[in-house]
Design brief:
Elements (H helix, E strand, L loop, with lengths): L8 H37 L7 H29 L1 H20 L4 H29 L5 H30 L1 H7 L7 H7 L4 H6 L3 H11 L15 H6 L7 H31 L4 H29 L1 H18 L6 H29 L5 H28 L3 H28 L5 H8 L2
Length: 441
């Protein structure tokens, strides 16, 4: 095992292996998440299941409610049984749930499928973030998380093309059958993905961790100064101890507004744009541009956050995202609208991810999945509310107000993460592992 501080070639290959496998898993997560919004204009136009805008908003909230459950429970379980097994379980669950949607003969069965898919989707993201954080090269934590999250938006782009190529000629069910295909990826994860080294060390599985470290010529992480939490409630209480309660609440509030904005726009963007007079193909082009912007934004924000601090970048990005979303309520030339949608995607998606990056970098390895999972989980209340709110506004004939409401959510997140950044800058000095993680911002 190398003792040099410089990363070895095999250590770099291990980091690439973990990030690559997690990237593919999150790609499938993004496909499954965005597919509902991509097929929604068709479902409303054909009145499938007698769907109305307000009922469609309810269905959109089912998946995000499932994500809330998944984020609150699965992230904590990952700190106890391991990231790898949880990732495998989550991919399996949301893939099978898409099969339920594809075969649904009623809105109730379809809603059940979307709820179950949401549990898997909500559990996968914080687990994958924790995994890549463990293997990220020194000083590149936020950039690595940003790179991972480009997969989510690549999945969103893929969902638009799946809908564009399959829904009209074959039917909406075919889009959900495509979302079952990630089941083929599960054996690959089971065979190739390594477990988190820091998790193995924290659980006392030192020999297994040493064998993995020797295999790839990487340093074995030092054991944490404190023991693993005795149970999941201890892990949660650690987020409020030592004066951390206010910081934790600020992150949760910022995440609430951010995910209300993200999932409100993700669910209703094609429908709102079609309501502005664009055909289905053009409306789906907005989804592609929005997610292309998300990919660019993740890379730019991740790099900027490693240099200037993730909470500061998140606050600026939320301000710019709110401005872009508000502009979408104003009728503009098509070319200008394309540009605004792209730039909104750049800032909106990465602003929320930088909240996760902040929480992940500030957390100790043995409590990281719990911290990210609960931040994501509290935000899922906003994710549940966003699609529902958009449906209610559309049903009342006030679709333009949807953009304004989503923009106000972005402003609130800017305020909360900005306050968190100020508190972090003025906070007391920390020691040990936590001090190193804070310095990594």
């Amino acid at each position: 095992m190398s003792s040099s501080p410089a990363p070895s070639a095999r250590g770099s290959r291990l980091a690439l292996l973990v990030v690559g496998l997690c990237w593919l898993a999150v790609l499938f997560d993004g496909l499954d998440m965005f597919i509902y919004g991509s097929v929604l204009p068709h479902l409303l136009a054909t009145k499938t299941f007698g769907l109305t805008p307000d009922r469609a908003g309810d269905l959109g909230s089912y998946a995000t409610f499932g994500m809330l459950v998944g984020a609150l429970t699965v992230g904590t379980v990952a700190d106890r049984i391991g990231r790898k097994r949880l990732m495998i379980a989550c991919v399996t669950l949301f893939s099978l749930a898409s099969g339920v949607c594809a075969t649904a003969d009623s809105v109730a069965v379809f809603g059940l499928g979307r709820t179950l898919a949401g549990v898997g989707l909500g559990g996968l993201l914080p687990t994958a973030i924790s995994m890549v954080s463990d293997y990220a090269r020194g000083g590149r934590g936020a950039l690595t998380i940003g790179l991972l999250m480009t997969a989510h938006h690549a999945g969103g782009i893929l969902s638009a093309y799946v809908a564009k190529w399959l829904v009209e000629p074959v039917g909406w069910r075919s889009a959900f059958w495509v979302c079952v295909l990630p089941l083929l990826f599960v054996p690959v994860l089971a065979k190739v993905l390594p477990e988190s080294l820091s998790f193995l060390v924290a659980k006392g599985r030192t020999e297994q961790a040493r064998a993995l470290a020797d295999r790839y010529d990487v340093e074995l992480p030092a054991a944490a100064d404190r023991k693993m939490p005795a149970d999941r409630w201890d892990a949660l209480l650690n987020l409020f101890r030592g004066g951390e309660w206010l910081q934790t609440l600020l992150y949760w509030l910022a995440s609430f507004g951010g995910l209300l904005l993200v999932y409100g726009v993700a669910t209703w963007l094609p429908t709102l744009m079609r309501g502005e007079g664009y055909n289905l193909g053009s409306a789906l082009t907005f989804v592609v541009l929005f997610n292309l912007g998300g990919i660019v934004g993740m890379l730019v924000a991740g790099r900027a956050a490693d240099g200037f601090g993730a909470p500061r970048i998140s606050a600026v990005w939320f301000a710019l995202a709110a401005a872009g979303v508000f502009l979408l309520s104003i009728h503009m030339p098509l070319g200008v609208t394309f540009l605004v949608v792209f730039l909104t995607g750049v800032f909106l998606n990465s602003a929320q991810t930088m909240i996760y990056a902040t929480v992940s970098i500030r957390s100790t390895p043995d409590n990281r999945a719990t911290a990210v999972g609960w931040t994501s989980g509290m935000g899922r209340f906003g994710a549940v509310f966003g699609p529902w709110l958009g449906g209610q506004l559309l049903a009342a004939g006030n679709g333009d107000w949807g953009f304004t409401a989503f923009a106000l959510a972005g402003v609130s997140s800017m305020v909360f993460i900005g306050l968190a950044a100020l508190r972090s800058a003025r906070g007391p000095e920390r020691s040990g592992v936590e001090q190193q993680l804070v310095a990594a911002r």
